[in-house]
Write a structure and sequence with these properties.
The chain is of the alpha+beta class. The protein has four helices and six strands; from the N terminus they run H-H-E-H-H-E-E-E-E-E.
């Protein structure tokens, strides 16, 4: 009997110790385990860019204006002037009595004042000497080559010879055989632009 009581007492003591150990574990030891601390990073609000702080070009497309003062003005050189002489010779030498000689008035912006006055007088002479307006008469001119005779930037003087091929046609006589003819153009530089000051057709 006594032995059974001792065994029961020992078992109860052991169970009690186990219960006490569990209570101590859950009540104290588990709390000692630190839970992970979540640190919240503070949100820093930066000031919005304004005015000149904007870095995106698309934010202010209308605030930029091209500086036209920085554009370099192209100055005509010898090659440019030869091209102008070639175009001038073709237009100057192509006209008809039924077009009212508008080729000369079209070229006035490329002429000096004195040459404009001469061309107006020349047109009047052509009208008087030309056949009746009812009978067509015209000349077409095509520039072939150019020759730079002289070019002086300092004095603003230049001479260019243009070799052309010309064809005459009329209503009663038909088309005549084309022929070559040179024209000498004299240029004066006025207000940074080269203008034709005289034109001389060489004899055929």
């Amino acid at each position: 009997m006594d032995n059974n009581r001792k065994k029961i007492g020992i078992v109860l003591i052991i169970l009690g110790l186990i219960i006490i150990a569990l209570i101590i574990y859950f009540a104290f030891l588990k709390k000692d385990k630190e839970e992970p601390i979540i640190t919240e990073t503070p949100v820093v609000e930066l000031p919005l860019p304004t005015g000149d702080d904007l870095t995106n070009p698309g934010d202010r497309p209308r605030s930029w204006q091209p500086n036209l003062n920085n554009e370099v003005e192209h100055v005509l050189n010898e090659t440019d002037l030869e091209k102008r002489a070639k175009a001038f010779a073709e237009r100057f030498g192509s006209y008809s009595n039924q077009s009212n000689y508008t080729n000369f008035s079209d070229l006035e912006i490329f002429m000096t004042k004195s040459f404009r006055e001469w061309s107006k007088s020349y047109v009047e002479d052509l009208r008087e000497s030309a056949p009746s307006y009812e009978v067509y008469y015209g000349i077409s001119t095509r520039a072939l080559t150019t020759e730079l005779i002289s070019f002086d930037e300092a004095t603003g003087k230049a001479e260019i010879s243009v070799l052309t091929e010309r064809s005459e046609s009329s209503a009663d006589g038909g088309d005549l055989e084309p022929y070559q003819q040179k024209i000498l153009l004299e240029f004066n530089k006025l207000a940074n632009d080269w203008l034709v000051d005289a034109a001389y057709w060489e004899k055929r």
